[in-house]
Design a protein that fits this description.
The complex is a heterodimer of chains A (306) and B (251). Chain A has 306 residues and is mostly beta strands. Helix content of chain A is 10%, strand content 57%. The longest helix of chain A is centred in the C-terminal third of the chain and has 13 residues. The chains are: A mainly beta (306), B alpha/beta (251). The interface between A and B is medium-sized, with 22 and 23 residues.
Chain lengths: 306, 251
Amino acid sequence: MLNAIDKALLEAVADLHDIPQGAYNIRKNGVGINRATTANINIVTKGDKPGIDVFVKPFTKGESVHIPVILSAEGLEDVVYNTFEIGEGSDVLVVAGCGIHNPGSKKSQHDGVHDFYVRKGARMKYVEKHYGQGEGSGEKILNPKTLIEVEEGGVVELEMVQIRGVDRTKRDTQVILHKNARLVVVERLLTYRDQTAESLINVDLVGEDSTAQIISRSVAQDQSRQVFHLNMRGKNRCRGHIQCDSIIMGQAKVSSIPEITAFHSDAQLIHEAAIGKIASEQLTKLMSMGLTEKEAEETILHGFLK
Amino acid sequence: MLKLKDITLSVEGEQGNFNILKNINLSLQKNKIYVITGPNGGGKSSVAKIIMGIYQPTAGEVLFEGQNITGLDITERAKLGIGYAFQNPPRFKGIKVRELLELATGKNKEINLCDLLMDVGLCAQDYLDREVNTSLSGGELKRIEIATIIARNLKLAVFDEPEAGIDLWSFQKLAETFENIHAKYQTTIVIISHQERILKLADEVIIIANGEVAEITSKESFLADIVKRDMDCLCSKVCDKGVIPSAQCNR
């Protein structure tokens, strides 16, 4: 059953106020506690390791799958392997996300390994939000690994957000794009205090006329540390664009290491990276409209990470 | 309504202190339009920033409606009804035009955001959901900046070179916009500008050069001086080229 803390975590990571519509699988403290399937979306427990297989029938349109994970006890180390088969010509929303409530002094950690096979002409939007809370001194650690293969004409949109409260994270995202496949990644990340975050995104543009766009925005406050490795490899006629922007505050440290490699003369790859503090003109403009300096700063950061 | 008393603004340079502004004294009356003009680097924008509180004067006082506001910061002055339109407005990643205008209105739902954009010559629906980022041209950004000023129904609005980056057609509209703000809200307007069309709006023209108020004059007198100077210059060139016999040249 879901208690008040569970519900708060679910709302933060999956915008769920109650049990979701459609297919879902809710995992709490390492155990699946609630599941529903539909005529078009089936969820099966893996036999060889912890996790689930999600099957979306070909040409399924307008349906969603919610697979949130919540940890609400200290000292848990949860590893889960989920595999998704997104059928040909389908159009679905997958909402993942993990919320940790750590009330104690021992660390709580969730490592989620997600494999996606997006079949010919299918569209998938994948939303993954990470959030930590709890008064205890125990660390809240989230390490997602996301592997995606997109077949001909497939479209994948990834929205990956670290809201707040995650002490350590290592994010690993690997995508292979075949002919005419399209990828849009939007990554938003906030760290503060002494939190650390590392994000590795590798995109292989294998197919002709495949396209990829990665937009990464982050805010590093206090003494936190962030490292971004954004890597795009063009192996055919293709187009790719990496845009990595960070706002740095306090004594934080941010490293942004974009890499583009062309293995084909018709590959067009661009990378842009910028790190800087909030521009004083931005603060001045908002203050000249009546906002205090703190309100102006919050408005700028909220917009940047939205 | 606004008085600048003996305002001096100094910065430290390699060869000691340098005065950007020297003993500026100005008295602006309610519900009038003032145009501040003068050579580049003369201190016009510094005066505007002193009024908004972006720069703090090294010496002197700023009085607004009888209150000494010299020590007030930008936010406090904004809350008194003073506004400032940037010469180069900043861009905001992730903030939409709609959100910026809502901040400007103080989320007053009675103010129609579309009307604000229409007032500055932008087709509202095309812009409200766009981000205030590099996808906007300099001219578009400038017009949105002016819309944020109109949105605030100010007592005193300062515009720093509003015509810069705006095309000729929009420029005509811009002059009308100032007239409309003035008529509709009885806002005292200070415009920093070199443009004749803007100068024609002025009740008074303030010339600032070398960090000092060189002259305060009427627009008629100022524009007549410009015409005379242009004519003198033209005559001088004609005489120099020998088009007119030197005996007829009266310098």
